[in-house]
Write the structure tokens for this entry.
Amino acid sequence: MNFYLKFCKKTSSLVLTIASLGLVCMTAIITWQIFDRYILNDSPNWSEKLSIFIMNWYVLLAVSVGVHESFHLGIDLIRNKMSGVLKKFIDVSIYLLIGYFACSMFIYGIALMTQTWTHVIPSLGISTAWSYLPLPISGVLIVLFSIEHLLLIFTSKES
Amino acid sequence: MTLLILMGSFFLLLIFGIPVAFALGISSLLTIIFEQLPPLIVFQRLSSGMSIFSLMAIPFFIYAGELMTHGGIANKLVTLASKAIGHVRGGLGVVNVGTSMLFGGISGSAVADVSALGSTLIPVMKKKGYDDDYSVNVTVTSATIGLTIPPSHNMIIYSIAAGGTVSISSLFLAGFIPGILTGVLLMITAYVIAVKRGYKSEKFDGFLPLFYAFIGAIPGLMTAVIILGGVLSGIFTATESGAIAVIYSILVSTFFYKTLSWESFKLATKNAVKTTAMVLFIIASASSFAWLLALNDVPSQLFDIMQTISSNPLVILLLINLILLLLGTFMDMSPLIIITTPIFLPVVVELGMDPVQFGIMLMLNLGIGLVTPPVGSVLFVGCAVAKIPIEQTLKSIWPFYLALVAALMAVTYIPAVSMTLPKLFG
């Protein structure tokens, strides 16, 4: 189990680093777009599509980091008032439901990819399926991190 | 029935503590399955709700805000405001509001505002003998000014939610006067309470230190000028202005202030990634939720219901404000903008209200929701910074609520407050 927790921590920090690179790339592309238009008098047609493509990737990847670090906003008021078995039950249900949503992200993300395999993103020249790929990837990661939380809930001592 | 499943499951999930973004997604998924539509629509909506070019301004604004916080620009603004207005009675309270007006204008995010300024100002106020509840009340309520004083990323969300028919530059122009009005009302409130509680004033340092503080703050203030200038003149789109603001913040804090190290750059980038992932994921899943509401004809049904309650536009506007305030107490701002705009915008347009004016009303209204329990992210951050329980602030926060509501009413019922500038320059 310790191995699994360590693995999750490493994975999450790697994913966060990749997502950060995404944000930096996006900034660079849009800056290039402005430079291109005003200095070189040439409007690149790929920059908007590519930066949207990157945004899709980095946001969905970082969403899984949010499950690991539990930084997604929610109402904790009632959950914090609970204690004992009831709190445990609610916490377990929360991560099961998040896991369920993540599984759907995986299944239907793959379905979207197979449906759009032959479509091409105009001006980028790659298949639209690539822009749906972060859905299943993030789905797998979220399942991974939900299991991590479930393990922690079950092994934690009553406080 | 469909609607019951959508709303019912959403509220149930929310109450038991599932993060908002997942609650929106799961309830949309359940509804789609119940209606026997292909579930893949939810994820297609999720993906397309995020693939909007003007939405990209949000990560850039947040990124620029993080860089400025870690690069020390926020501190320069605190210095400027305290040298300028610190010598009036209850000075630091008024300074707090003034700094929020300066910084909120740049970061455009109330949570960023309260965490950056609160962590600087609240300890100082504590040291000078101000009560904790007063410091928190002033800090959190004035942080909402950043939502109305441009640039504000929530205005971009509104512009997208309104179907791209409302121009971002009109919204930016429209926000100035309501933002200043809110600031002035809060300053008066802060002053009156300070006098009542007998807080002392700072001594005026003279004009030279004020001048130096101003010079020191100019590079920071320029960030807002760049974004606003770019958008209002039409040279840059909001997204492009955001990217420029990021590059500019990096350059200024590295080479001018010399406060941005490689470590703090990495920290700022990671923080920005986390915040944007949270915000954009909520927006994406809210867009599939909003799509289901529209599919089930909720906007027009609600319009009919409102018509039967009253035909008086003033009453309907009051009703809409009350509904939004209620929703705002337990839900966050960005999903509410995405979900309620398609519902209420047609109603108010029918009543003759300009979509721009409605946008500003929405910002002020939902801004109040950020500082009210049970869920108020800005209030929570403020209390966390000051390390006091929320109950302690709630006993004395009502005069500040009153000021915010007064500003909201002015924007709702007096079109000139928001529409004067867009009409002049639009």
Observations:
- The mean pLDDT of chain B is 86.
- The two ends of chain B are 45 Å apart (CA to CA).
- Chain B touches chain A through 56 residues (CB under 8 Å).
- Residues 33 and 39 of chain B are 6 Å apart (CA to CA).
